[in-house]
Every structure is written in structure tokens, then in C-alpha cells.
Amino acid sequence: MAGGNSPGGSLDLAADHLRGPIQFTVDLDHLLSSDTRTLRLRTSYGKAFPVPYRNPRRGSGCHLSPIRLVVRKTALMHAHDSGNPPLPRLPLTVVGGYLGAGKTTLLNALLADPQGQRIAVLVNDFGEVDIDGRLLQASADAPTRDVLTLANGCICCSMVDGFAETLETVRGFADRIDRVIVEVSGVGDPRQVARWGRIPGFTPDGVIVLVDPLSIRDRASDRYVGETVLGQVAGADLIVISRTDIVAEALLLEIEAWLATATGATAMRSPVPTGLLLGPPLRIAGAATVNDNSHFTSTPPDHVSITRSLDAPISRASIDTWLAARPRGVVRAKGLVQVEDRPEARTVLQVCGPSGTVAVDGPWDDGDAVVVAIALPGTPRAGLVKWLGLLH
Amino acid sequence: MTTTIYPAASVHTFDPSRHTADAVAVRDGRFLAVGSVDDLLRIDGATLDGSLERFTLIPGFVEAHCHAMTGGMWLHTYCGYFDRQGPDGHVWSGCQSLDDVIERLHEADARMATSAAPDEPLLAWGLDPIYFRGERLVAKHLDLVSATRPILVMHASIHLATVNNALMEIEGITPDTDMEGVPKDGSGWPIGELQEPAAMSLAGTAFRKFWGRTKSDESLRNFGARARTTGTTTLTDLGNPDSASESEIDRFRAVVDTEDFPARLSVFHMPVPGTPEAIREAAAAVRASKELSSSKLRLGHVKLVMDGSIQGYTARLRWPGYLDRAGNSSGNSSGNGTSNGIWVVPPEQVTDILRPYHAAGLLIHVHCNGDEAVDVYLEAVESLLAETPRADHRHTVQHCQLTSPAQYRRIAALGMCANVFSNHTWYWGDQHASSTVGPDRAARMNSARTALDLGVPLSMHSDAPVTPLGGLHVAWSAVNRLTPSGIVLGPDERISVPEALHAVTMGAAHQLKMDDEVGSISPRKFADLAILEADPFAVDPMELRDVPVWGTMLGGRIFEAG
């Protein structure tokens, strides 16, 4: 296909070349020292960008003839948004906790009051979720027997056919839902399940672990399940303490103190409003909606929320600094921003408890760059303002 | 009514009333009688068939723990470390280095050049780099095989796969793929390893095809072919979550209930988690499915999985747990984040899950690799028996690898059985001694001697495709307890050849509640035989696994291996 260039030069590529591997002939002396280098390529879109490539002959001795070099299509796609519409990414939140910790109660509350979000809840068995009959739509509307459609736009999927298959099904109606919540079995490790948030079509959006204040300490030292329960708690981003209505304040304080030693997660007492648990209804695939402050209506007034608009693209380094400097008490933060070295792309920032993710999901759409953070009551406002100020 | 008399070089019946004979008489697919040729010739209308006269006849092997996907694996290219026989009888040599793996894949790619589309993935299985001294198969190795055809090599643990750059290109696995379980090189490029199911699912079409093909009719026919080549006449599929569904039963029937399928198959139901109501309904459906059994296809037993595996550091062990705790983060990719394995079901729910099945009178087998899992299972059976006493339930501990003498006494007292994973001593014995539990506990693993001495009804298994199907190898492993490095691991736990062969015939039949139909050469039982080219009672016990299998007889019909 294309040919006759050296790693130091540049090459013009027509769009055709983006469809398959591109072969180059390169000078031998550029390739003997390492197996991967960066080649700068320029496309017909007019942008120059670096492409990593491999030397297929590394380690196999000296070759006197020029060698063929294959540049992978994905490298080009990755380095330059080629105009293909980006995959919509559904935020994937994992809900875990040991038996009886309150997972089902939390899911039922979310389904009953989704705050305008269309949530797909993935459960092992429909029987676990108590769906109000009035919410159920005619079964004819459901795509398969393993999916229930609710009148409020939410859906409920059973994972009887396997997790990978169920996510595939859910990806099929990405245009009808805003987010996915996966319920993990009582002995499952929610942090492990959260890995699935990285597969195409999804973006990880937090690990929520339920804790029953009456039994957690016993469970955590149980001969059989102690390690399992401690692992769940340690792997959480947000902890929701259930049964707060029947538990004495002294015990709650004791549990909260214990949790602070067992996990870096942000702990909250139930009931936790949908808007706080899931954060602002940022539709990553659609238009930026974080400027719409309606999500704050569901946040209790004593919680602290801050919004900051960004006038100019920010540096990647400042994002890393920002993620590392999260003040205690932050429950959620989200942002749609432009990053300096990829200004053409829309970069999505998400913070859930101690975890943060940065993802590119499409071209910058000329909307406002904005970051929003929500924190627990009593979190100093000035600290949050300073924190958001780290993005520059 | 035709009666055929088959004289043989020797016949070992495993029937307590008559241990040996010269010939068997077969009528209507069942043994009519065993005895001397002269005795049998007195039967009216009997005809003599000399075709088996140079062979040794023993009951067909009964494998009480294997999986139907065994056949499906052979739709992929074998890359394991040990020599392994395929369904057609061909022995694939073991891949003992990365070069061997690449050569094996080269050959497969060359075959696909004429038989498959250029983008049809090349799928391989069985890779066990634990034997490669730290060398790691990555994409650049597989790129030497093909730069265009997607390649996926599933490791023996099935927790890890290696793919080539062509596959990564097609499926969009790039430096942008930001996911635990997708390791990258210094330049940020994915090295081609996909760890654990979430990352493996990135392999898209290839990943789906790898498992999808194991659910095909061809897979099931291969499973039968593997039975024929190993002398096995009764197989199991130990645990299928759909086993009570009409369509799944039809799928099995269409293959198993044909004359050409050379084995009986008992499909165990695998319960899925659910509400008490859902579990009760499932138990009723499994109970009902039992009535749909035929002489070859058996339905209606139950298998639950309690913990993981010892070599994967995911089995639940009692004190002192795993020897090499670092194994959780280095030697394997299970990454379960705990130092003592995983529970597949919550321990406190085991009784609730099993209750409806026990109450319905069904047979329950539970996967317990670690001794802590055994404790939980025994506690559950104890309370179920207190609630609903049952005689002769034969609930079985599957794998039972680290079970203590006290636990075996309890197993016996509860009327339970043990199906021990004897092949482990050969396939992972050295690793157990050096890494997972240390030499002392490794020598106590799969303690068949203890089980027999304490009166526990014993069977032994291959767990195919985890290790190769075949009663002779399983028995050999329990008789010799040899490891590949040449150590006899736990000599005091060795058992005799007759004890071992009993365990993989009558012992297994007992645990499948088929002991009145198969497992011995006895009048009225199905005429199911392993037809051997040497007498396993006469060979050096160390050569037991090398006794050639000529074929099988199933219900009076002869199936030649290979």
C-alpha cells in the first residue's frame, strides 16, 4: 500500500488507508535498537500525530535488507478521531454487599424513584427485585424473556444467560437507557465485577457497597466469610449504611469509625437520594447536561455542591493532580472538559469516592467545559473550590 | 432372541459373587450370564463370536465427574504441555516450549488456509505456562503465526487468554483500552494477555466462538468419541444450569439417544442463585425431568459449586491456608484479593439452596476442593438430614482434595460418598508441593487410601476437560501417586490396582445411582465393557495407564476406538 518512508519523516495518508494495515519500508538502522518507537504520521485530515509501532524482527539478529513495517489501523483510529461516531458509553455502577446488607432495598428505591434517569438494573433473579406491578409494561414490549420494561423507562435484566451475554443485550438498547447498575451476589467481589465497566460501550461509574450496621462487625470476623466481607468493604467507592432507622446513633458512629479504618470509601447513611448516589445525570453520549442544576433538587440541602466552568483547555497533568488531591467527603464529581494535547476530543472526568476515571468518548462539541462536585454535609466549601481550581 | 457369547483372554467382572470369567453372554443389550465358554454355550440358540477373544474385558469406565464441553475443546487446537489423545484417537504431542506452541498454531493456520475464511479466528486451548519457567506467551509470539488471522489461545486455567495483534486490531484492543487485566508494555501497547472474563470478553467474536462451539452437537459427538477411545461407557455433564429445560433435553436426546452415540450420559442440574420460591420451582422441574430419562440419557441429579480450585488459589482452605500467599498476585491471575480463595455460593445459603432438592429425594453432588468448603457442605447435609431424614441419599463430595480423616469419618457417618480428584497428583502434584500447600499437605491430597479405610464409598475422576478423560489414567494416578518430577507424593495414600479400578467402575456407578445397571459385568446389567489389549491386573502397576484400549461395548454393541 503506502511505502518508502522512514520513521523520522512524515507520511500523508488518504482515508482509505485507515481501513487496513499499512505497510512501510523503513531503514534498518532506525529499527535495531528497540522494538517499539513512535512514528509521526499525518493524515488527510491535516493532523499530525504519533503512532507506536513494533519492529517485528527485534531480537532475531541483524538484517541487511529493509524490513516491512505494519502499522495497525487501530493505532490510527486511536490517534485521530476519524469521523466515525463514537460508541455511546453507558456508565456502569456496581452494587455489592453481603447477604441481607440491603442491596435489594436500594435497587428497589432506585427503580421506584430514578430521578428521570433510565436505569437498567442487572440482577441474578427477578424474584429478588420487588417491582411494582403498575410499573410493569406489557410484556410484549420486552425484547426478550430475560428483560422487564418498566413504565418509567427503567429496565430490569436477569443474568441467567451469563454476564457477558447480558451486557451484550444491554448494549443493544443503549439508546433507551442512561446507565447500568449491576447487582453482585452476596459473596461476589464487586471490585472484580467493576472491571466490566471498561469493556466497549460502557464506562465504570462507581462501586457501591451496602453495609448492615447490626451484623457487619460479626461478618467481618466470621470464620467463613470474614475475608470476603472485608474485601467487599475495602473495594468500595461509596458505602451505604443500611437500617439506619432502627439503629442507635452510638452504634452508627462506632460503625463509621470502623469503616474509616477498613476502607478508603466515602460512607453515607441510608436513605441516600438517587441524585447523590449516582451523581448528576451526565449523559456522556449526548449533550452536556451538567449546567442544568436540576439534579441538585434531589440532593439534601445540607450536602455541598460546587460547579465550575472552564474557559480554556486544561492539562493532563493537572487532571492527575486533581484526582490525587480529592478532599475527604467528596461523594461524586463529574466533568466534561477539553484537554490540551487532545483539544479536538471530549474528555469525561468521573470521581466516585476515592476512584477517578478519565475517558475520551468523542469529538468536542463546543459546549461549555464544566466540572461539578458533590460532598457530604460539613465538607468545607472553600476546600472544594480550591480542589476544582486545580484543574487548569 | 439372539444370545451372543464373547470369549475373552480374561474377564474381570467387579461382581463380588464372581470375580473372573472366561466369557460373557449378551442378549438384548444386557449381560445374560458370565462364566466359562462351555457353560454359556448351553444357553439355547447361543452363538459364539470370537472377535474379542484376544482382549481383556472389564466393565466400561464410569466417569462421575466430567463436563460435556470436553468434546467442544477438540473443535479447537490443543496446546497443552502433556501429550493428549483427541476424539479420533490421534495423540497430540504436548507443547513443551513456546516454540512448540507456535509450531502447533502454524500447522493449524495452514490447515485453515484452505478450509476457513481468512478472518475466521484460530482458537486454541490448554496452554499451561506454569511449565515454561516464567516465559510468557504474548501477542508478538502469535504474530509470528499470522498477522492477519485473529488468534486466541485459552490457558488451561481458563482465567487467561492470549491473543495476537490481528485480533486486537479487529476488536479494538488498543493503547486506549484502560482496563485491569489488559497488561501493556513499556510503550503502552497491550501485550496480548487478557486476564479474567471481563478482559477476555474484549476478544469479542473469538471469545464467544470459543465457548459457543462447546454447546454444539459436534461437541457432544466428540465427547462420545472421547469415551470410546478411553474405554468409558458412562459419562456425566456435571452441571448444566439448563438441564431441566425442554430445549436443552431435546438437544441432548438428539445426539445421545441415537445408536451411534457410544456412551450413556448423566446430565446433572446446576442450581442458579434465586429466591426460595425460584429454587423450589427449579427443584420441582429437575424432579420432573428425571422422568424423561432414557436408558442412555439420565436426568435429575444436582451439582452445586462451593469454591474455586487449589492451583488457582481460589479453593477455600482451613488453617494454615495457602503456603505461597504471594501466589494471589504473582503466579496466577485470579486476583481475588483475598488470601483464602472464594466462595461461589454464600456458605450460610448452602442449606437453603439444597433443601428443596434434598426434600424432593434427589441426589446432590457438591464441588468442594478445599477442606473448608467440605466443612460447610457437611454442616448443610447434617441439618438437611435432621430436617428430612433420608436413607441411601448418596450425597457426594466432589474433588474432596484436602479432606481430613475426621472429615472422611463424618462423610461416612452421614451416608455420603467421596469422588476424589486423583489425576491432580500427576498434573499439579509438583506445584502443590512447591507452591500451593507445601510437600506435607500435597502428600495428603486426594487421600483415596484414607477414604477407603474409613469406609467411604469412593470414586475417582478426571474432571475432563480439566485433565484428560480416561479411567486408566485416573486409576494409575491413585495407584502410583507419581508426579512428573519423579516424586511419589504421599506413598501411604496409594491404593491397589483392584481398588482403583473398582473406584472408576462400581464406585462411580454407585455415586450416580446406576450401580444396579452399570459398573460391573453382572447378569441383567447393561452390556457395557472396556475392551483392553492387555490385562490391567497383570501389567506392572506403573504401566496401568499405558494399557491400550481397543474399544468399548455399549448395550451389546461394539465400538472400536479410533
Structure description:
The complex is a heterodimer of chains A (392) and B (562). Chain A is α/β, with parallel strands linked by helices and 392 residues long. Chain A has three domains: 12-79, no CATH class; 90-276, 3-Layer(aba) Sandwich (Rossmann fold); 286-388, CobW-like, C-terminal domain (Hypothetical Protein Yjia, Chain: A,domain 2), CATH 3.30.1220. Chain A contains ten helices and 18 strands. In chain A, the strands form four sheets. An eight-stranded mixed β-sheet of chain A has the order 8-9-7-10-6-11-12-13, with helices on both faces. In chain A, 40% of the residues are buried. Chain B has 562 residues and is α/β, with parallel strands linked by helices. Chain B folds into three domains: 3-54, Urease, subunit C, domain 1 (Roll), CATH 2.30.40.10; 76-213, Diaminopimelate Epimerase, Chain A, domain 1 (Roll), CATH 3.10.310.70; 216-554, Metal-dependent hydrolases (TIM Barrel, Alpha-Beta Barrel). Helix content of chain B is 32%, strand content 21%. Chain B is built from 18 helices and 23 strands. In chain B, helix 14 (424-436) packs antiparallel against helix 15 and helix 17 (471-480) packs across helix 18. Chains A and B meet through helix 1, helix 3, helix 4, helix 6 and strand 17 of A and helix 5 and helix 6 of B.
